[in-house]
Amino acid sequence: MANPKKMIISVEEVSGPCFYKYEQGQEVEVLGLRTPEGFCGAAYHTLFPVLFALNFGAKYPFMEDPNSINTVTCPDGGYVRFKVRRVEA
Q1: Is residue 1 part of a domain?
Q2: Which pLDDT score, from 0 to 100, does residue 8 have?
Q3: Per residue in 24-45, pLDDT tens?
């Protein structure tokens, strides 16, 4: 198994209500596939495939930074859009 990668989940856009009160610009650091303390479970569930892929070396060549993707939206109405970025050592 590969060493866990450091990734940053950023709130890119908020266009409606959010129970967790996420705000644009907020960032959460993730190591590997660990769920961040107090993070919205529904949002994490949606982010998990991206976190999994980036943790194991995936790249998104259609993005400006191929070590990131910024199109993951919250499943609760899509009001929150997240970016996930792998931090290269």
Answers
A1: no
A2: 98
A3: 999 999 999 999 999 999 999 9
* Domain contains 21: yes
Q: Is residue 19 part of a domain?
A: yes
How large is the average pLDDT for residues 55-69?
96
Tokens of 78: 């899509």
pTM of the model: 0.93
Q: Is residue 45 part of a domain?
A: yes
Asked whether residue 53 carries a pLDDT value surpassing 90, the answer given is yes
Mind giving me the DSSP string for the chain?
Answer: -PPPPEEEEEEEEE-S--TT---TT-EEEEETTPPPTT--HHHHHHHHHHHHHHHTT---TTSSSTTEEEEEE-TTTT-EEEEEEE---
Range(s) of the domain holding residue 66: 6-86
How many structural domains comprise the chain? 1
Strand 80-86's sheet: what is its strand order? 27-31, 6-14, 80-86, 68-73
